[in-house]
Structure formats: C-alpha cells, structure tokens
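Question: Hello, beginner here. Any chance you could explain the protein record under this note? Any guidance would be welcome.
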Amino acid sequence: MKFFLKLPIVKIKFPFLIILFTYFSINCSSQNTNGDLEDYIDAIIKNIPGSSGDDYKSPSITQSNIWENSLDYVLTNDIPNARLQLGKIGYKITEFLDNSTNQTFYILEKNSNSSNHWGTYIFTKNSVINNLIITAPHVLNDTNTGQQAVYCLKNTLAKAVFLNGTERCNSSSFSSCSGTTSTCDNGSEPFRISDVAHSEEAIFHLSTKILHEKIANSIFIQLHGFGKTADDPSVILSNGTRTTPTIDYIDLLKNELLIEDSSLTFKIPHKDLSWNRLIAFTNTQGRLINGSSQPCNTHFSSASGRFISLEQEREKLRNNVSGWQKVSNAIDRVFTKALNLTTENINNNLIYPNPSKGKISFKLKEIGNIKVYNLLGKEVEFTENYSSNSTTFSIKIEQEGIYYIKVSTKEKAFFQKVIILK
C-alpha cells in the first residue's frame, strides 16, 4: 500500500519540477540590460583567463552543432529559441540597450559558472552594414583590439563582432593546423588550440564559417596588433594571399586610413611581394574565406577580397579612442560612404541580381526615380520615372566596383549596395 500511495505524489511533483527547472534555465540564459556597451564588454575582456591554466577546451561535435543551431536562430531574429539552445552549452544572450547610441545588441556570452571559454559574440539588432563582421581573435595579446572592435561596431552598426575567450597561449594543447609561432615564449612551436585564429575546431572559426555561408557578400575584418620595430610600417593590411582580388577593399581602406592620419605607413603583401611579416597566410579564417576546402592546413592562393587582416602598431591606431575612431571612420566610409543610410531605407531584396554585370531588375510596383552613387558618394547616373511592375534597366558604368543605388517612390526611398562585375 505504501508503494501505491507514494506513486501519485511522484507523478504530480515531477512535471512541476520539470516546469520549474525549465523556467529557471530559460531565465538564467537570458538577460535584458542597458548601459554603455563598451564598458560592458571591457569588463568581460578583463576577466577572461590568461596565458596559463588550461581553461580553454575545444567544443565537442554536439556542442558545435548546438552553437550552429543557435546562430541560425540569431540570424533569423528568433532570440527565444537561440536562448534555449545556448543554455544547453553554458551560454546566454544578453539583450543590451546601449544608452549612447540607443541601439540594441545581442551579446552571446558564457554563463558565469560555465567553463566553456569560447569567446563573446555581439550582434547588432538593426545593423546598417549588414554584411560586415569585425573580429578580434587575440584580445589580450593584441592589446585593445577587443575594445577597438566594439567601438567600431557601435559607430558603424556593422553586423557583428567576434571576440576570443582566453589568452591565446592558455591551453597547453597544440592545434593540428599548419603554421608556427614564438608568441608563447617557448621558441617556435605549433599554435595552441586556444589561439582561435589558427584552430579549425574553435567556436570562433565555426561562427566565421556560418556567417560566411549565410550572409551574401560578407566581409570579415580581423583586428590584430604587433610590436613595431624600426623597419616595420604602422599598418600591415593582408587578404591572406599574394593575389589582388577583383574588388580590393584593402586598397580602399588604406586610402581612407590615410585621410584619417597621413603619417601612417603601410605594407600590403599582395602589392609588396617581398614583405613576409604578419601576412596572415596561416590564418584559418582567412583560408576559409578565400576558398580553401581544408583551411586548417591548406593555403589558398586566390583572394576573395572578403577577408582583411588589419595588423596595427599600438600608438597610432589601437592605443586609445582617438586611434579607434580613425579605424572606425575609415571602415564606415569604405562600406557606407556618406550616403546617410538608415535602417529604415535599406532593402537587401530590392534589386537583383547582385552582383551584376550591369543589368538590374526591380521588384517595386512604383519607382519614382533612380540614382547611382560610387563609394565616394558621387552620383554617377540618374534614371527616373519607372512605374511598371517589373522594371529593368542597365547601369552604364565603365568600371567594375561597389555602388549604391537609391530608388525613390512617392512615399519613401530605398538604398542598396550593389557590386558591378565586368
């Protein structure tokens, strides 16, 4: 009789405990707060594990799959499901309202009691430069690059920022990926698995792969720092190859940085072919974005133009806000160029195909007029009075490159960035 009397009690309490546990887990995995995004992330960076301790552990296949599912949800703005997934692997999403910009950011960060030091990933809720991701894989070793990345995110409203989660030498285990370094003060040796710019298993690398595949024409700017010697330039800008891509964002970025600071000096490995220092040829994200099917060990000789390694000496660009602003301004002009774009007037499905060889189709029922601008903000063509349901026209541009098309109707205007290939 005692057995049968106790059984209904267990049946009643058990689902209640499940509900309690689920509610507790969801609420621990979520957080809404506000403040200054830079201060919030600076506190995270200052508390990540240092150069010893073996705190960093590579994710399992199951954990990587859960992370991938979580990012899929984030990219479709399904934050509740993203939170449920991330809670399974010790991570949460903080919905953060930045008071200085009045913009909301989603911060994927580890729970305080989690031992998964895979980094911090920040997504702009209403991004303006929808295809730009700024990353910093060595936030402790390359001083201030994490803070600089967040400053650039706030001021350009790029799509996302990725930051690593431990000092690059934290783990004693070596990466299987090719290349060597003397960073960890043990002479030349293979990269550690905690050096996420050189590990294919890292969540940092997986996140790059996911956004590279999911976001059309995605661009990745990876911020680095180095100790300048007498023979070094101020900046080393590399696409990870010796090849000049069809659209050379690096050349554009160099020109904009010189506008910010004319004293800067540069080395660009695909132009300065004898330069061999800090050229990102063993960077696994660079290899991936350039098209290598085996980025861990295989360098790809062709450049997609969509990976930019920005190596900076400390004093001019990454020492403080003054330098960060120079980089942020240059990035902003390269990718939005003084067109005053807002989140309300960007429409990524307005014009197709993109990239195009010149002939563009429109999906609007009514089009008042059309304007085309180059990256300098100069109008290069004007077309008006199109009103059919499926209007097409050819852009008469002599040179290939990146352009912005403004389409105006009676009610509103739409901007879209297009790539013209000849």
Residues 1-30, 338-346 have pLDDT under 50 and may be disordered. DSSP finds ten helices and 19 strands in the chain. The chain has two domains: 32-339, 351-420.
